[in-house]
Structures are given as structure tokens and as C-alpha cells.
Amino acid sequence: MTDAPTDHQTMAQLLQQGLFHHRRGEVRLAMERYSDVLTKDPKNAEALYYVAVISCQEGQFTQGVDLVRRALTLVPPEARMLNLLGQALDRLGQPLEAVKALDQAIALDPKLAAAHANRANILIDAGMPAEALEGFDRALALNPDSPAELINRGGLLESFGRAEDALKDYDRALALAPEVAEVHANRASVLKDMALLGLAGGGDDTAGLDEAVASYTSAIKLKRSLHEAYVARGQIKLMRGDWPPGFADVEHRAELTNPDYKPLPDTRWDGSAPRAGERLVLVADQGPDDILQFCRFAPALAAQGHDVVVLAHKGMAPLLSTLQGVTVVSDVTALEAKRPLRWLPLMSVPAVLGTTPETLPRDVPYLAADPARVEAWAGKLGDAPFKIGIAWATGTADRSAATQRSLPLTAFKDLAALPGVELIALQKGPALAEIKGVAFRDKIRTIDADMNADGDFLLDAAAVVSQLDLVIGCDAAIVHLAGALGRPVFVAVPAIPDWRWMLTRDDSPWYPTLRIFRQDVPQQWGPVFERIALAVRERLK
Questions:
Q1: In this structure, are residues 392 and 431 in contact, taking their beta carbons and an 8 Å threshold?
Q2: What per-residue confidence (pLDDT) applies to 236?
């Protein structure tokens, strides 16, 4: 006859049973066993720790922090407990305290790969990418078969412009976890960038774009709800001129975490013919550059017999009111008493119409400057023989250094030195302060326009642009404004361009008066502006 198990043995067995269920994903059963332990011994640090793990897995991070801290008061500090504490504190928005906990975990166990990785993730959010990369390197040296860390390091390497190294990490992650859709999508992003860089450098890497599309498709097959993959795949198709399926993919933007428009309660327009007494409301979505580019569809639909209303932010409404045959409102309540209506996001119109590069509405200009403002500005722009409007900053940063759209103001130096040329700053916001730092600041005229987001800056900008000989800018709203006004415009685009500028060509189906100057090498704007300066000299002859 054997002795009955001791209380200690019974609790050890209960913990093992809890761990068994926990590892199988049977959380309820695991909690029952852990709770049995804590009923017998409320100060059992092991049980407290495992309950804290479950709390964090279920998003109860405050509870998780409380539990693991109780456990740490009962036993000497353990690296795994401090690692969990760091993770939970980070999720509670306490990164400094999180890093302290993770540093303690690493001091206790320098070989705890998870602690190095968790610390690296916090450092990325803190804007310390180089230090984060060191952390991922250390984590993967300790645990080279961690798909999560391979994915995270791959994303970081991609942001550094190290596409080939990122691809190696993604390929390794896929070998370990081929069923993870996000890895296929990340790999596709790198393949796309590598292919675009190859094309920018004069190569022919269309096969790379094919592979990128295939990788996005693999991601979508594994996870139909991965809407970012649809949008990214669609943008590649749009670049290549395959617009109908491209715009169809981009329609998934409505399912992203933060869509750029609020749906109206009415029926979406499906492209059908006009109905008597019905309004077609186009809801302006995305940013000012997209709105300026896509608002061309409003007068085209009005010409087909639709009663078109554009619903736009009040800062854009005055300029959009120059669209022919279109009503513009900036308050959704203005639509309440004017039913029936059907609606559609402005950027969804080409998807509904099946627009191709050949069927794109080409009536340019489709926006107009206000005559009174044109007259008011006529005497303010000086008497230089050749006036060039310039815009060098987007105000936003793209995902990686390779895709930065903003230009260094110093790149305009040679243009400022051309005889008879004056540069007019078509810029707003903090970037204007850069003028003080360039040697040719006396050759740059600034316009005293209302910089309030709800003011009339776009109306003033349109009036100024209409009187300039040329506009030169980065990929930003002012370029689209010049194109929509039918004014001569040069756009300098990075080696990895936005989809709208398509591939390799120096013209655009969107704007007949626009010329594209493309980077050959990321971050190297000098050769681009040498070509721009040459083109300007030709215009001065």
C-alpha cells in the first residue's frame, strides 16, 4: 500500500495538469487547475505566474501585471517573470518601465531570447531602430528558428533599405511557418521594392513584380481578411497599367483599420444610369493629392446626366466648387433633406466604371483659379521673366528611406542660379523655415496665403500657379493642383514611386501637362535635378 500524495505533490501535479491543458490551448481547463493550486496555496508563485500569462494572452494586461508582481514578491526574481512583466507594461503604454523589467530579465538570463526580442520591439516604437536591430540579432543568435523575430527583423531591415537581407529573413520565416499569411505579404513588399529599384536603375525586373503579385496572392489565399495585401497587390497592378483589377483590389481599403471616409447610410452607386430626381454623392476620401487627382470624375459623371454632389472637407470645398456642373458641400447634414441619393467614395469611381488608361477622363483643366484672386495676386509675384513654383516637402514620411518623397531644398540651387528665374515657394507649414538655411534664399519668394487648414490656401495657390511659367515639386498635392489646372509641371519621384506615376514613363495619363523625372538610385536627387535644370534651360531658350 502506497502513501497518499502529500499536499506538495498534489499541487505539483495540478500545475503539470494546468500546463498540459495550457499548451493544448484549453485555457478554461488550465485555469481550473491553476485556481485549485491557488485555493490551496494563495502564495504559490508558479500558479500566479501562469495565471498572469493567461491574463496577458486574453488582453487583461493590468491584471497580468498585478499577478506577476505578486509572484515576484514571493520568490527570487526570475527572468521569465520579468520578461512577462515587460511585455505587459509595454501593452499598457509604459515603455520605460517595460524596458527596465526586460533589462532585469536579460541581466538574470542573458540567453533569454524572448526578452531581447521584446526589448527590440519597444525600441522600434521608441525611434531607436539601430538598437532594436542589435536586439533582434541577439534574439535570433539565441533562437534562430523563431518566425516572429525573423519577421520583425525583416521589417526593420526593410525600413533601412536593406531589401536583400530582409528577403532572406522572410524566406527563412516562410520555411519555418509557411502558413503565416503576413510573411508572404511582407516578402511581397520586399520583392516589389527590389523590382522597382531594378527598373529605376535601367534594368528589366518585371519578373520581380510578377513574383511580388504571386506572394500577395498567396497571402490572400491563406487569410482572406488580410486587406492590406489586396491594396498592395492592387497598387502593383495600377503601376503596370492593369487598372480594372488593380482598382478592384484597392477597394479593400474600406476594410482597413482606419478607412479614410465614413459610409453614408444610403445605397452605394453601382455605376448604373442616372435616375430622375436622384443625386449621386461622391464622398472625397484619402488626402488632398488623391482628391485633386480623382475629382475629375465628378464633371465627367455630370456630363452623363447625373446630379453630382461632392462631399468634401471645407478646406477643399472652395476649390472643388470650380468643377463644372457639380455641387460641392462640406457638411453631411446638407444632404439630409435632399433624398433620394446614392453615394460612392470618390476614389472608388474608376473601380465601378472599369476605367483604363485609355478611358480615363482627359478634360484638363477641370479645376479653375478664382479670377478675383488671380487679379489680386498679379501684382504680388514680381516681374521676373520666368517664375517657377516649387514644393519640396510632403509633410509626411513614407515607410522607408528608399521611398521618401520629400526633396532637399538645396536641390533647387542650380535652378535659382539660372538667369531670369525666380522661385516661388508653394509650400506651407514648418518646411518654409528651411528657406533661411539655403544660400539662395534671396531667390525664393514666399506667398502670404492663409495657412489655416480650413482657410483658402488652395484657392490662393491655384491663383498663383495659374500665373507661373512652371511648377516643380515632389510627389505632393501642389503637383496635382498644377496638373488639374493644366499648367506645366515637373514632378520628381523617388526610385520607388507611388503607384500613380506608373513604371519608367516620363509622362502621365492623368495630366497631359506633367513631366516625370525619376530617381535612378534611392536618396540621390542630384542627377534628377541635373535633368530638371537641363529641361528648364530648354524652356528658357
A1: yes
A2: 97
